Every structure is written in structure tokens, then in C-alpha cells.
């Protein structure tokens, strides 16, 4: 039998017992994790369930049986007294949680270099980043340590690492998957996403974890669909809009690959034409104001008093706050808290946060108008391939621009999916991003599954 972790999990389940499948995953983690640093915590040999497809969980999604550190020293020993709704639904469906994956601290980053537990390395080239902030989840699936993983999205933190690692990454519609148990970064943008080898697997997982949750006030009551029902229908007659403002300056291998992807869709009978989203160029500026402002508010709870790291140095309450946060938070988290606090401060709130929210509303209107003409909107997932570890750590602005194609979908709340679209001359993955209207995940899987079937890039795995 071939490596079961390289098979779609529907096939692997037919060939393996629950114990064998989980055991294969744990052995793969034991073999490869020292090289990649994808996992922070790994379950014991007793992990398993009645179905027991092994799955990894990003370490900012709480579980009762393993710590939830958020990649931070401030939560280095924290074990949650409750479990995230998405995790509970996986367990109820018989899935087995085999470990918690590494991430940029509090999901703030685009490379998984900002982790208190060290950087994640890309399975295709260990001198390159795995993307972020869900780099551990993406690397774990790409390296065939697990067949699937959950990550979290605030501005592209599932799709961007999925692109860098050559796997499928889904950001669902905001409200489609409960945020209960996801440690908050920016509550108006955060959501749990999915990373898998194939589109069909992604559709199956969304059916497991999606749906209304009374524990999350932003959870949608819209019924869960049969997300995999149309994956074999093809794209004939579907309309795809190429976002002109996003790709007009695109060049090099990413441009060549993107144009080739468009031709594959055309050959399948799809209509592919230019589309306009005039305000999309403002998305990164909007995102880094809104996200940092909300992070400033959400991370105020980590103060050394309620839970988390408590400094032993402080002699006054003020010192306790300063020392606990100063010792517990890393540089990138501190930077974003300061930027967000400034944007919310007296005299600057309307000039920054208020204006950003106003332009965000205009961006959503522009997307709504584009979806009046098109079923889907297209861009590359990332503007470049995975960059070398250390190349951008001293240049935050350059790092932030890694999210230039992904952040718009978070700001407007629509579903978006990254699907492998080829490889660079250096053998690094490239990726196509497909965006759809709110709650159109079923159609999104249809479009992505056609592209995947025509290219079969998912069958290639890194050699470790």
C-alpha cells in the first residue's frame, strides 16, 4: 500500500483501521517535525476515535487535552478549561486531534517566524518560510504528517501559507464556522479555516465544522450545505472575473502562472473576463488599521493578573502589568498593539479607525457590484513564492504586503480558496485564489475542484 497520508482521506479510511491511520500520522510527525517545527504539542499514542481521521489544530484554537499557547510565552503553560466548538464537532464526528501546530504569535505574522517556539520551515525548501500565521498547519499537511488541519484567518493566514506550501486553503464566509474557542486577534475579521490536500476533502471538513453555534453571536443561522455535491460538475458557463486593479502590475513567474491558470478555466468552458474592484488597492491599509486596533483591545486581557504569564519582578500593580506583558509578548505583537492603540487614541480615532471602516464599507460595495456580473473573482493567492527565512523580519512593511491579495476577502467577509497552480523554476509552489459571494462555498468548491482535476498538482509531495 502507498503512503496512506498521501491518499485522500476517503481512500485511506477504506484501507486502514482507525488505530493504523492515527499511528501513521504520529509516526510521520515523529519523523519530520524536528526538521520543520510544524507542531508545538503532539498527542500521545492513545489518540483515536471511532472514525479517527487524524487532524492537526492551530495552537490558537483551544483544546482541553493539550496546551493552547498561541505561539507566545505569555500563554506557555495555559490549558483551556473548555474546547472550541469546531474541535468539539470534529471529535463528535470521530476525528482524532493528533497535535497543535506552530504559528506566528497570536496569529500576527505572514511567515511563522514570530513564534516563541521558533520558525516553521517550508517542506519544499527548509531554508524558506512556510507562510503565516498558520504556517505549522500548512507545513504539516504539505509534508504529509496529517491529511488535514485547522488554521485561523484574519487577513490571509490560511490561504497564504497554503499557497507557500502547495496545499488547499479555505477561508469560509464570516460566520459560517463558529469562532467560539478561537483566541481573539481581531474579532471582526477572525475565523477558523481549513487546510487539506484536496478540494473534496476541504468540502467534507467544512460540512463537519460549519453551522450555527449559540456560543458565537456572529455565527450565521444559514443552513449547512452539501458542500461536495457539485465538485464534479465542471465550470462550463460559469463567469470568472480577473480583478484588474489587483493584477495590473503583476509580472514574472507569478504572472505567467496566473495567465496559464486562466487558460485552463477557459478551456473548461468558463467565461473569463476583466473585473473591477476600484477600492481593492486600499485593502492593506484598511486591514492593518482595523486589525491592529481590534488586537489592541483584545489583547488587553493578557495582563499577568487573570491568567497567563505573571512577572515576578513587579512591586506595584502598574509594574506587574508592564513587566508581565513586556516579558510575555514578542516584538511583533508589541508593535501591533502600539499601532492599534494609537489608531484608537483620543484625537486620532476618526482620522484612522473611523476612516478605515468607512473605506471598508466602500470596498464591500465594490465587491458586491463585481459579483453582480461574475460568479467568482480571481487573483493569485500571493505576489511571490515563499521567501527565505529571515529575509523580511527587519522590514515589517514588506512582510505585511504578503497579504495584499488575501486581506480583501477578510475585510468583506466572503469565502475564498487557495488551490495549487504550479511550481516556480526553483520548485516552490504557486497558487490561484478564487473568491465567491457570501455563503457560496458550494460553488467555490466546484470551481476549485475543476481546476485541481485538470492540473493534479496536489499529487506532488515534497521529499523530506
Which fold name is given in CATH as the topology of the largest domain? Amidase signature (AS) enzymes
CATH architecture of the largest domain: Alpha-Beta Complex
Oligomeric nature of the chains: single chain
Task: Report the structural category.
Answer: alpha/beta
* Percentage of residues assigned to helices: 25-40%
Mean pLDDT level: 95
Summarize this structure as a short list of keywords or feature phrases:
464 residues; Amidase signature (AS) enzymes; eleven-stranded mixed β-sheet; 15 helices
How would you describe what is shown here?
- The protein has 464 residues and is of the alpha/beta class.
- The protein has 2 domains: 4-278 and 361-459, Amidase signature (AS) domain (Amidase signature (AS) enzymes, Alpha-Beta Complex); 281-355, no CATH class.
- Helix content is 37%, strand content 15%.
- The chain has an 11-stranded mixed beta sheet, with helices on both faces.
Amino acid at each position: 500500500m502507498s503512503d496512506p497520508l498521501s491518499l485522500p482521506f476517503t481512500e485511506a479510511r477504506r484501507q486502514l483501521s482507525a488505530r493504523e491511520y492515527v499511528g501513521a500520522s504520529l509516526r510521520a510527525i515523529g519523523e519530520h517535525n524536528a526538521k520543520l517545527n510544524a507542531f508545538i504539542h503532539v498527542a500521545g499514542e492513545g489518540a483515536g476515535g471511532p472514525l479517527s481521521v487524524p487532524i492537526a489544530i492551530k495552537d490558537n484554537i483551544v483544546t482541553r487535552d493539550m496546551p493552547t499557547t498561541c505561539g507566545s510565552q505569555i500563554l506557555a503553560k495555559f490549558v483551556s478549561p473548555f474546547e472550541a466548538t469546531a474541535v468539539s464537532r470534529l471529535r463528535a464526528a470521530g476525528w482524532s486531534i493528533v497535535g497543535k501546530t506552530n504559528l506566528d504569535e497570536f496569529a500576527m505574522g505572514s511567515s511563522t517566524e514570530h513564534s516563541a517556539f521558533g520558525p516553521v520551515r517550508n517542506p519544499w525548501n527548509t531554508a524558506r518560510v512556510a507562510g503565516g500565521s498558520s504556517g505549522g498547519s500548512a507545513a504539516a499537511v504539505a509534508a504529509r504528517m496529517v491529511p488535514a488541519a485547522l488554521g485561523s484567518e484574519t487577513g490571509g493566514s490560511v490561504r497564504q501559507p497554503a499557497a507557500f506550501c502547495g496545499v488547499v486553503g479555505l477561508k469560509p464566509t464570516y460566520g459560517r464556522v463558529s469562532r467560539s474557542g478561537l483566541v481573539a486577534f481581531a474579532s471582526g475579521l477572525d475565523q477558523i479555516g481549513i487546510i487539506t490536500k484536496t478540494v473534496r476533502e476541504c468540502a467534507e471538513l467544512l460540512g463537519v465544522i460549519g453551522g450555527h453555534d449559540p456560543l458565537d453571536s456572529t455565527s450565521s443561522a444559514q443552513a449547512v450545505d452539501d458542500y461536495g455535491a457539485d465538485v464534479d460538475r465542471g465550470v462550463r458557463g460559469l463567469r470568472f472575473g480577473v480583478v484588474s486593479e489587483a493584477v495590473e502590475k503583476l509580472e514574472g513567474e507569478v504572472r505567467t502562472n496566473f495567465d496559464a491558470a486562466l487558460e485552463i478555466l477557459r478551456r473548461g468552458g468558463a467565461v473569463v473576463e476583466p473585473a473591477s474592484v476600484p477600492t481593492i488597492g486600499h485593502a492593506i491599509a484598511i486591514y492593518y488599521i482595523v486589525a491592529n486596533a481590534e488586537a489592541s483591545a483584545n489583547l488587553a486581557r493578557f495582563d499577568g493578573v487573570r491568567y497567563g504569564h505573571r512577572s515576578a519582578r513587579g512591586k506595584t500593580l502598574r509594574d506587574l502589568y508592564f513587566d508581565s506583558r513586556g516579558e510575555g509578548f514578542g516584538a511583533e505583537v508589541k508593535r501591533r498593539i502600539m499601532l492599534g492603540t494609537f489608531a484608537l487614541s483620543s484625537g486620532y480615532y476618526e482620522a484612522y479607525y473611523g476612516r478605515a471602516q468607512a473605506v471598508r464599507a466602500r470596498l464591500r460595495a465594490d465587491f458586491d457590484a463585481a459579483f453582480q456580473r461574475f460568479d467568482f473573482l480571481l487573483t493569485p493567492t500571493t505576489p511571490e513564492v515563499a521567501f527565505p527565512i529571515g529575509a523580511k523580519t527587519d522590514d515589517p512593511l514588506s512582510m505585511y504586503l504578503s497579504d495584499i491579495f488575501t486581506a480583501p476577502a477578510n475585510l468583506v467577509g466572503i469565502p475564498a480558496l487557495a488551490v495549487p497552480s504550479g511550481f516556480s523554476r526553483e520548485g516552490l509552489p504557486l497558487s490561484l485564489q478564487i473568491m465567491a459571494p457570501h455563503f457560496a462555498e458550494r460553488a467555490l468548491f466546484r470551481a476549485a475542484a475543476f481546476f485541481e482535476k485538470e492540473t493534479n498538482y496536489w499529487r506532488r509531495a515534497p521529499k523530506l
